[in-house]
Amino acid sequence: MSDLLKEPAPHPIADHLDGLVRRIAHAAAWLNLLLIGVILAQVVLRYGFHHGLVPLEELMWHLYAVAFMFGIARAISTDSHIRVDLLHGMLPPRGKLWVEVLGITLLLMPFLWVVFDHSLSWVADAYRVGEASTSPQGLPHRWIIKAVIPVGFALMFLAALARLLRALAALFGRAPA
């Protein structure tokens, strides 16, 4: 990430997109409390009463998936995701911005769009056939958890768009104060 974007200048569209992504991710983060409760209940049932429940096991996976997918969008928004920047540190600030713009435009956004686009039919098919867990005691309505994929990738796309707008603004004259 460019040093120019560490303290990003206000950008009305990017600020709105980041705010939306962060509010949704923050709301989804509260599901982690429910996840902890479900894990504790499953542990007590399994080790205390020697009887775990398949629906609780699957609910753990579902809650974790929501937190993970929405957390990635927030990480993109706050630039707190992990990077492997071998040459990045040697570039001047404008070079770093160009790497940011090209990386988002040529790599990240196309990938996010392809996954989003392909996941829509996957969710629709699961809804259409009434897909449920393969376990007889498992959770019904598998389409609900599958719907987290396009929603999560749409949020990631919005976060990436906000980062792109900020990088372009810094490159072409609207540098941070």
Description:
With 177 residues, the protein is mainly α. The protein has one domain (10-81, 88-171). Helices cover 72% and strands 0% of the residues. The chain contains six helices and no strands. The two termini are 17 Å apart. The mean pLDDT is 89.
Explain briefly what this protein structure is.
This protein has six helices and no strands. With 177 residues, it is mostly helical.
What brief labels describe this structure?
mainly alpha; elongated
**End-to-end gap:** 17 Å
- Please tell me what the overall shape is: elongated
- Tell me the number of structural domains: 1
Element pattern in H and E: HHHHHH
Helix content: over 70%
Question: Strand percentage, roughly?
Answer: under 5%
Low-confidence stretches: none
Main sheet summary: none
- Report the structural category: mainly alpha
Taking all Cα atoms into account, the compactness measure Rg is: 20 Å
The number of distinct β-strands equals: 0
User: Mean pLDDT, as a whole number?
Assistant: 89
Count of alpha and pi helical runs: 6
How is this fold's topology laid out?
Blueprint: H1 12-29, H2 31-49, H3 54-78, H4 93-129, H5 142-146, H6 148-171
Helix pairs in contact: 1-3, 1-6, 2-3, 3-6, 4-6
